[in-house]
Amino acid sequence: MGFDDRVDNIMYQDPSFPEVTEHLEFHEGLKPLWLESLARPEAELQRMAADTIALAHRAGMKNLEDTAAPLIAILRKEQLEPSVRRAAAHTLVVLDARQAAEHFAEIAMTGSQELAMIVEPALASWNYEPMLEMWRQRLTDSDCERVKLQLAMRCLGEVKDSAAVPLLLDIVTDSNAEGPVRHSAARVAAIVGGPGVVVTAGELSAEPVGQPTASLLAVTLLEEQSSPEAIDALKRISGGGTGVASGLALRELYEIDPKLIYDDAAAAIRSTDVNVRRVGCETLAHRADVDSIALLAPLLSDSNPSLRRDVSNLLLRLAEQISLRDVVIQHTVEVASRDDWRGLEQSLIVLAMLDHEAVADRLLELLTHRRPEVRVTAAWGLRKLAVAETLPAMLLHANQETDKVAAGTHELRYAITIDMQLSQLFQAFGQLEYKPADPLMRKFIPKTLFYGGSSRPAAVWALGKVNAGGVNEELSALFAQRLKDGLSPMPEFEDVRRMSAVGLGRMEAKPQLKSLRTFVTEVPSSVGQACAWSIEHLTGETTEFSLEYAVSTMDWFLIPKDPAKPTETD
Question: What is the DSSP letter of 492?
Fold first, then answer.
């Protein structure tokens, strides 16, 4: 069970608070200790120090460049434990220590395969030219191990070595070479490019139907090509069947120009391959006409979750064109009238985001659908549409679900669903300031195991909206109690405390200013920001605080006995 991420919560947006960021502080005594460890004779100590330096650099620690020299010294000691040399090499790569390039090259020629896998990509990224000849030689060495051969290809692709392309194409067309090696060669040749790439791809694409390897190699070679010859080859492959190569060829043609495959889109969306269906859907959306929408809408029920979500987004994009909006709604309503839960979920999202109020009655029906995704999306859709006439039925349903939970007669498999659905309904009551829902939502203020972590903050938020502008001492006291419950053995949910603080401001609860000022010290947390928001709302006073806070970490394998003053990172 997974809910669509577009099913959002207005309570976190009204009011919204900026995100809080953190940065690490590192104590001055750490680096000297690690340098001392590198100089020790114990191999395990050296390895852990090297690994720690890499971790610290990635975490943002600055001024670690002077660790490169002792790391290079460790790397040059061939008699050392291999794991220590690997750790030193890896850390030098992380530090981007280009002064190690010459030593890396020596290791690439004489060292182990494990070390080569670390140092050679670094040499390629540094464009270290003395390595080019060795990498090229591997392409013609029949005794070269596959791992080192593919490593050489990868590095030649990184430096975009055009001189290697003919050698790579020889491997691509060598039917005796291993499949993974041929595909690696094709990928690198495609990256580097050149006239021979298209010619070879054309020859491979012309091989008889039923040669999937040749077709796949041809498509791979043409990934960066858009010439007429490349287009012809891709069309031959895309029309040659329903395999992987055909789907990839369609994708390449789409990237060159979607119009090239307009005529193929209808067949593509019926493919058993989701990637082919996806290209077909994107092509129909690009064509953007009435017939395309009629073909596209049924894929709201596609078996693939990401594709059906993509289809709903494509329909929403098409609906931005005034001439197509009604057509999109018409075909989406047809999907919403059926019982396929996948299509229901996506069609409800489309119709709600298009503010199609005529679907409101259907949404009410679907509040009791068998699938959680549909139940929650229906409640969200009712909130988005905000049709006042639906509020009594929404409240009746919310009361019924609440009574079931309180009595323990609800199906346990729907516990999370009920919590999330009630959350959406309560937010709708708050949006529309629906007073009749007040007694029900008050049941959700006390801390209890009956009601969940989504419905309770929503109820508190909505009560603040429903009672905004008028002092309600009883409700204010309940909110203040929830706000204060942050340090008990079972502390209150942070979201409930946040919404309680916001509600106090909305209800003009000036007698509770002391509580708000007490907990505003929790900034920049959401509770602290909510208190600051309400204090400003009630008094006009602003609270200055930073949205960034420092975290000092000493969680390292060695730390100073008496840590020095921490130094902040950038």
Answer: P
Question: CA-based angle 249:250:256, to the nearest 5?
Answer: 90
Whether cis (ω within 30° of 0) applies to the bond prior to 298 is no
- 218-266 pLDDT tens trace: 999 999 999 999 999 999 999 875 578 999 999 999 999 999 999 999 9
Instruction: Look at residue 570 in the predicted model and tell me its pLDDT.
Output: 45
Q: Output phi, psi for 484, to 5 deg.
A: -75, -15
Q: Which residues pair with 548 in a beta bridge?
A: 21
Residues 360 and 421: their CA atoms lie apart, in Å, by 16
pLDDT band, very low/low/confident/very high, at 413 (cuts 50, 70, 90): confident
Q: Which distant-in-sequence residues (6+ apart) come within 8 Å of 467 by Cβ?
A: 438, 475, 503, 506, 507
Note the pLDDT of residue 556: 85
pLDDT, tens digit (0-9, with 9 covering 90-100), for 101-118: 999 999 998 878 999 999
Q: Which amino acid is at 551?
A: V
What's the angle, vertex CA 399, arms to CA 396 and CA 402, rounded to 5?
150
Q: How far is CA 494 from CA 133, 152, 403, 486, 515, in A?
A: 62, 54, 26, 8, 16
Q: In the block, which residue shows the tokens 């990237």?
A: 255
| Residue 345 near residue 377 (C-beta atoms within 8 A) | yes
Which residues, other chains included, contact 196 with Cβ-Cβ below 8 Å and sequence gap of 6+? 165, 166, 169
